[in-house]
Amino acid sequence: MDDADRAQILIDKRLERSLNEVLSHPHEAPLDDEGGNRICVECELIIPVKRLEAVPHAVRCVRCQEVIEGQR
Ligand SMILES: [Zn+2]
């Protein structure tokens, strides 16, 4: 195994990890209120329908999502 192989494995691992982060959030099931509205798991405000049309699996409002992404 040479350096190129090792580098490729590192890249694959990193890619796999970020893919998993995006695809599977078992602890982040979408929340709905009694009225059937999707609510943000962070601030519990209703997520606008427009956002859900754009991101159907969204569990956070835009503001909380930006905060979370800003932390990375
Ligand atoms: Zn929120």
Task: Outline the fold blueprint.
Blueprint: H1 3-23, E1 31-32, E2 38-39, H2 49-54, H3 62-70
Antiparallel strand pairs: 1-2
User: Could you say which structural class the secondary elements and strand pairing correspond to?
Assistant: mainly alpha
Q: What Rg is obtained from the alpha carbons, in whole angstroms?
A: 17 Å
Distinct small molecules: zinc ion
Instruction: State the helical fraction.
Output: 40-55%
Shape: elongated
Question: Mind explaining what this structure looks like?
Answer:
The longest helix is centred in the first third of the chain and has 21 residues, at 3-23. The chain has one domain (3-70). The model has no long low-confidence stretch (mean pLDDT 88). The protein contains three helices and two strands, in the order αββαα. It has 72 residues and is mainly alpha-helical. A hairpin with a 5-residue loop joins β1 (31-32) and β2 (38-39). It has a two-stranded antiparallel sheet. The structure holds zinc ion. Residues 40, 42-43, 45, 60-61, 63-64 line the site of zinc ion.
